[in-house]
């Protein structure tokens, strides 16, 4: 069946590069003479029919903008079959034969559900958590990591001056990739991630080793999925003579202008998503491995678990406690 009218939406937590990706989807669709509509507020907007016609001009100068011009949401209603039916009937009513959904695994589960009602769906991974198993990279991760690194570098200045211990909580929901990456890039004393938790003794041992190596300030990076940063600070306080300061980086990590990596990856992924639809493919997730861009079946992609690589765990062990 020929593709005539595509809807594009962003859903879940926003990520730098979402706008660049919307722009690319719109421009690729227009290039092929396909109509394109933006759906506002993710799946919620598809249920309520909150759509806006887009063209080349409506996405001018958004490649460098953080956030998402389409807004985003986490729709409870869409999680029910009732909500999915409503969204499918919006597609039918508006003549949207295909939906390109930009977001994380929750977004893709929504797309998977919608595809059961005969709507073509393509997912584009965008989440600062970088926790989608079938792709090496999710849009937004690099920009978010650099934002966190900049903040931690600043924290280090004051921690060094006061000879303090800093416990910094980094986002990532249940995943520790952002914390791991940021911890490596900032030379943290210890990095706590849910995939390879350190017990209390191991954490204190890292600090002790650093002290024996002559350090008088300590940077502890904690993935939010590990637990509360204040509790971890208390553990350190109880076991040492340190009085740690806690910083939760929070949503600041999701904002800001996407960097070059995110802009270019978003542009390539958006392009590929439209091309896949035009090739008659549906129920696919766009993904990237070793610099190349490809696609995978959505059911298979969602079933793929993401583990931390042995190399990453080994490097973390070698680079901390110093
Ligand atoms: O999934 C992206 C993310 O930023 C997670 O890292 C974090 O746990 C969550 O979203 C926060 O969600 P909210 O914006 O609803 O507070």
Quickly give the CATH architecture of the largest domain.
3-Layer(aba) Sandwich
CATH C-level category of the largest domain: Alpha Beta
Low-confidence stretches: none
Give the count of helical stretches. Answer: 11
Helix content: 40-55%
Beta strand count: 11
Mean pLDDT rating:
97
Largest sheet descriptor: 7 strands, mixed
Derived from helix and strand composition plus strand pairing, the structural class reads alpha/beta
Q: Numbering strands along the chain, what is their spatial order in the largest sheet?
A: 3-2-1-4-5-10-11
Estimate nothing, just give the exact number of structural domains.
2
Bound molecules: 6-O-phosphono-beta-D-fructofuranose
Q: Could you say what the CATH topology of the largest domain is called?
A: Rossmann fold
Order of helices and strands: EHEHEHEHEHEHEHEHEHEEHH
Span from first to last CA? 60 Å
Shape: elongated
C-alpha Rg (nearest Å): 22 Å
Q: Note the beta-strand portion.
A: 15-25%
Concise summary:
With 322 residues, this protein is of the alpha/beta class. The chain contains 11 helices and 11 strands.
Helices, strands, pairings?
Layout: E1 5-10, H1 18-31, E2 35-39, H2 42-48, E3 51-54, H3 81-94, E4 98-103, H4 105-115, E5 120-125, H5 141-162, E6 165-170, H6 177-186, E7 190-192, H7 200-212, E8 218-223, H8 229-239, E9 245-248, H9 260-278, E10 284-289, E11 292-297, H10 298-303, H11 310-319
Parallel strand pairs: 1-2, 1-4, 4-5, 5-10, 6-8, 6-9, 7-8
Antiparallel strand pairs: 2-3, 10-11
Helix pairs in contact: 1-9, 2-3, 5-6
This protein binds 6-O-phosphono-beta-D-fructofuranose (F6P).
6-O-phosphono-beta-D-fructofuranose binds near residues 129, 172 and 224.
């Amino acid at each position: 069946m020929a593709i005539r009218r595509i809807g594009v939406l962003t859903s879940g937590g926003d990520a730098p590069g979402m706008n660049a990706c919307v722009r690319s989807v719109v421009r690729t669709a227009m290039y092929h003479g396909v109509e394109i509509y933006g759906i506002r507020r993710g799946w919620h907007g598809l249920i309520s029919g909150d759509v806006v016609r887009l063209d080349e001009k409506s996405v001018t100068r958004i490649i460098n903008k953080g956030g998402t011009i389409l807004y985003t949401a986490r729709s409870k209603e869409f999680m029910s079959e009732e909500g999915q039916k409503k969204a499918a009937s919006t597609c039918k009513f508006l003549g949207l034969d295909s939906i390109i959904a930009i977001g994380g695994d929750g977004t893709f589960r929504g797309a998977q559900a919608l595809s059961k009602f005969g709507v073509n769906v393509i997912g584009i991974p965008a989440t600062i958590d970088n926790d989608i198993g079938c792709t090496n990279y999710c849009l937004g991760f690099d920009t978010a990591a650099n934002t966190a690194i900049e903040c931690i570098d600043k924290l280090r200045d004051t921690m060094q001056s006061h000879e303090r211990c800093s416990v910094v909580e980094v986002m990532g929901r249940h995943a520790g990739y952002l914390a791991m990456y940021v911890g490596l890039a900032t030379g943290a004393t210890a990095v706590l991630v849910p995939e390879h938790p350190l017990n209390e003794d191991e954490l204190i041992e890292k600090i002790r080793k650093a002290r024996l190596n002559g350090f008088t300030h300590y940077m502890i990076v904690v993935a939010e999925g590990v637990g509360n940063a204040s509790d971890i600070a208390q553990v350190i306080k109880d076991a040492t003579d340190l009085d740690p300061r806690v910083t939760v980086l929070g949503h600041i990590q999701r904002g800001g202008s996407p960097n070059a990596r995110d802009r270019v990856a978003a542009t390539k992924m958006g392009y590929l998503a439209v091309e896949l639809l035009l090739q008659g493919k549906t129920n696919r997730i766009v993904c990237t491995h070793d610099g190349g861009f490809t696609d995978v079946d959505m059911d298979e992609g969602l079933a793929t678990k993401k583990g931390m690589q042995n190399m990453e765990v080994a490097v973390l062990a070698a680079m901390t406690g110093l």
